[in-house]
Amino acid sequence: MITFSVLYGVYVIEPYRGQEKPWLVLTIIALVAMSAVLMHSPSGMPSLGFSITLPLTSGSVPVARRVGAGLLVVAIAVAWWTAGAKVREAIAVFARSERTAIFMSAGLVAVYGGGLIAKAVTAPIRRTVKNLPQGDPQRILAEDFMMGSRNIGLLERGLMFAFLAAGQPDAAALALTAKSLARGPASDHGKYASEYFLLGTLASVIAALAMSVAARATVGLSIL
Description:
Elements: H1 2-13, H2 21-40, H3 61-96, H4 98-131, H5 137-146, H6 149-165, H7 169-183, H8 191-218
C-alpha cells in the first residue's frame, strides 16, 4: 500500500513537480499510508514467499501502533501547516452559510426523524414476531433479517437525502436499488421479513424525499 501510494502520488503530481505543495501532499499521503500499515497490520508484512523486515514493523505490537499513531500526528501537522489557512477560511464560509444550516438541519431530521417513523410503522410487525413462540422458524428468520436494520436505515436515509438534496434523483434511485438487491428479503425469510422491509424502506424514502424537497424549496431551488 505504501509503495503504491507513493508511486501513484508521484504520477499525479509529476506535472507540478516544480512546485512545493504537491510534494508536501505526497509526503502526507506516504505518512498516512505508513501509519495505516503500522496501526492495522502491526505484526509485519504479508508473506510473499521470502522474508521482508522493515525497521518500523519489527518489535512488539504496541510499539508499532504507537509509531503509527505518531506518524499520523505528523501527517496531520504537515497537512495543517500546508493548507491550514485555507481550511479555516473554507470552514468559516461553510459554517456561516444559511444554506449549510438549512440542508444540515433537514438532513438530520430525515436521517433520525425518519428512523422514528420507520420504527413506528414497523412496530406492529416486531410485536407480532416477538409474540411468536421461541424456536419458531418464522421468528428466527425474521429476527435474523431485522438484525442490523437500524444502521442500514440510517445509511439509506442519509444517502437518499444527500442525492435528492443535490438534485440527483437518479442517483437516489440507484442507491435504493442497490440496497434492495443487497438487503432485500429472500423467499425463505418469511412474510414478516418482507413486510418489515417494505414498510421500513417506504418510511425512509418518504422522510428523505420530504426533507430534501423542503430544504430545496426553502433556499429557492427546484424541488427535484
